[in-house]
Amino acid sequence: MINSALFILGCLCVACDQASINQVPVERHQAITAAFKFASVDSLAQSYGQGLRLSSIRSSDVNTNGTSAIWQYEYLASAPFTYCFHSTFESVDFDSTSPARLGVTFISHGWFNSDVALNIAEKNGGSDFRSQNPRFSITAILAQPLVPNARTYWYITYRSSDNPSQVNLAIDAVTGTVAEYYVD
């Protein structure tokens, strides 16, 4: 059940396309956690329309300590639009709107920060994966599956740059329990 939810979530998290962001290089020491500028992102989102609610947070270039140079935040409204924002160490900006997709839900539970999520992922297979795959990337997505009584999860994926192997974890973003772990 969680495997299919992970697959569906991965397929659906394409609205905030990184190619559309005017990215500027950010020094690694200026990498931030997902919550570092969340209050500013949320405030900016609310200025774009009443009723916008957080749907996901993601980064495709996460460090092992749970920081990234850029985080993307997706908000949904009752109208058929998705609003995308991003934050870096120095800024919070509106990115784009796109048609809302079916199968997306609001994050309705509290959540802990990306540094906690990566700490849990490292202890539950991430560190072992990295030791076997020295060239790797880490993606982190905070979202809530569209299933009844769903919890909010951090979906962490470690991918090798040298072969098709990867490790996927679904971590309950409230309790820290690893709900799913699988290797491809």
Describe this structure in words.
The chain has one domain (2-183). The protein has three helices and eight strands. The chain is an alpha+beta fold. The chain has an eight-stranded antiparallel β-sheet, sandwiched between helices. Helices cover 22% and strands 31% of the residues. Strand 6 and strand 7 form a beta hairpin. The two termini are 16 Å apart.
Keywords:
single chain; alpha+beta; eight-stranded antiparallel beta sheet; globular; disordered N terminus
- Total helix count? 3
What percent strand? 25-35%
For this structure, the quaternary state is: single chain
Average pLDDT works out at: 84
Radius of gyration using CA atoms only: 16 Å
Largest sheet: spatial strand order: 4-3-2-1-5-6-7-8
Give the tally of β-strands.
8
Topology readout:
Blueprint: H1 2-12, H2 38-48, E1 53-59, E2 71-76, E3 81-87, E4 92-99, H3 114-132, E5 136-143, E6 153-160, E7 166-172, E8 178-183
Antiparallel strand pairs: 1-2, 1-5, 2-3, 3-4, 5-6, 6-7, 7-8
Care to give the gist of this entry?
The chain has helices spanning 2-12, 38-48, 114-132, and strands at 53-59, 71-76, 81-87, 92-99, 136-143, 153-160, 166-172, 178-183.
